[in-house]
Amino acid sequence: MKKLINSPDSVIADALRGMAAAHPSLAVDLENRVVSRAGGAMAGKVGLVSGGGSGHEPLHGGYVGYGMLDAAAPGEVYTSPVPDQILAATKAADHGSGVLHIVKNYTGDVLNFRMAAELAEDEDIRVVSVVTNDDAAVEDSTYTAGRRGVGGTVFVEKIAGAAAEEGADLDTVAALATRVNEATRSFAIALHAGTVPAAGKPGFDLAENEVELGVGIHGEPGRERGAMAPVHDLVAYSLDVIHADRPVSGNLLVMLNGQGGTPLIELYGAFAEATAWIEGHGGTVARSLVGNYITSLDQQGFSITVMSLDDELLRLWDAPVSTPALRWGR
Amino acid sequence: MAFDTTTATAWITAAEAVVKANEARLTGLDAAIGDGDHGANMARGLTAALANIAEKEPATPGDVLVAAGRGIVAKTGGASGPLYGTAFRRAGKALGDTTDADAAQVGEALEAALTAIKELGGAAEGDKTMVDALTPAVAAFQAVAGDGGTVAAAAQAGADAAEAGLAATVPLQARKGRASYLGPRSVGHEDPGAASLALILRALAEVTA
């Protein structure tokens, strides 16, 4: 393992110190490991909190700021934050109108956020939780822990954040977050696993002619292994899976996301294929993101996330946002 | 020997040592079917459990386990943090104010831990989780205790049953946790949660022997 780190034990603390130094718009609580907006609470606004394991940067700390999150709780690498830490983030985000927890569907995240929500209720902070589960690679919850929350989480944070910024109440913001989640599907393919610093070697091994199909965001292996193919075929495979699950049609928001170890030249090539596939199937790419938005350390590969847009979702997506990783219109 | 404050503390101390000694093995099991952090998480959690016990200076074995559980929840994260943390806390509460628990009381505490894990995680036997090691362990422990056996004898039977339960997870397909996303590819591996549970119950057998 060759990484730009001091030691596996200090990775997160060092990264948080760097975030604090790079972004004066953020308040970084190194002791509780909470990233929140500098300047603190804005009376009356619904607070938005997300969190999860580290290693997915810019998720979630990079999305703290105007129009998106109020606070984020980054756990250890690929490990959910602990309840006390989530409670600290919830308190930082509480502006007196309640707090929305945006939780990706992974057992650890769900359990720790549930415990934190109970602690927050004990302190008279009203919490509503929305669990994202947009991964089309997972078929059902009878034989699994349920669909994973992946790229759609970025859309939920942006659109719910815009509604909260406009003054919507907690139930309205939560309902919107649920709607975004339901309108969104993702699928991911990995060429090479990322390396967790504490483990020191890649999460799985792939031969030169193999790919993992349907991976999550933790270096966990996918549902099946396939043959390496031109990006045209890999994108078509991904969109076929998404389309079979929820029709890819109408006006769409499309994210072509890198997993951390993939150059932009390859992501743009993949996006060209995705656009052609979607237009060939009668859909329209109305808005798009291409880049590293929800990563898996240095994993090589991409994920595609597609959301059906209506007028309200489009307006809220276009609303001003000012965070380290997403910024427009302000 | 009954289960008193010293024994309870010795159990957590031994559990921390054996989990640390097996950290790489647990992480390897988790890398095969999960995300490869179970060893590091459990080591961090049990170290926090020991620190919390040292700070709280609990006066009963129940308080030792409650302090351990709180330490684990506060530092572990992942799914193992809430599950193990809540399990120890519930076991401790089940012991109540007793200063010297007998085998039947420890058996009830272990059963309370199993119930807590099932409630929180929603897993049943056969899902390829820690429940598959703990369920037979509790049954074996209580069977010996019910026959008037000592804590040592019951713990020995419990640890043996947990290890057998761990081995029985190998052919199972995971239905809970991250391993469930692998579908049929999760078959053929020991479940990491069942593996850490077997280590912790073996530690109990060793400190009570």
UniProtKB/TrEMBL annotation, chain A:
Kinase is among the record's keywords: yes
Which GO terms of type biological process are on file?
Answer: glycerol catabolic process
GO molecular function list:
glycerone kinase activity
- What organism is recorded for this protein? Jiangella mangrovi
Q: Which residues form the DhaK domain?
A: 7-328
Recorded protein name is Dihydroxyacetone kinase-like protein
Q: Write the record's keywords in alphabetical order, separated by commas.
A: Kinase, Transferase
- A GO term from the CC aspect: cytosol
InterPro entries, from UniProt? Answer: DhaK_1 (IPR012736), DhaK_dom (IPR004006), Dihydroxyacetone_Kinase (IPR050861)
- Tell me its EC number(s), please: 2.7.1.-
Pfam families in alphabetical order: Dak1
TrEMBL record, chain B:
Q: Which SUPFAM superfamilies match?
A: DhaL-like
Q: Which domain of life is it from?
A: Bacteria
The protein here is known as Dihydroxyacetone kinase-like protein
Any single Pfam family the record assigns to this protein: Dak2
Keyword terms of this UniProt record: Kinase, Transferase
GO molecular function: any one?
glycerone kinase activity
Could you read off the lineage of the organism from its UniProt record?
Answer: Bacteria, Bacillati, Actinomycetota, Actinomycetes, Jiangellales
Q: Which organism is it from?
A: Jiangella mangrovi
Q: What is its EC number?
A: 2.7.1.-
Q: Name one GO biological process term.
A: glycerol catabolic process
Q: What class of enzyme is it?
A: transferase
Domain called DhaL: residue spans: 6-206
Query: Membrane as a keyword?
Result: no
GO CC annotations? cytosol
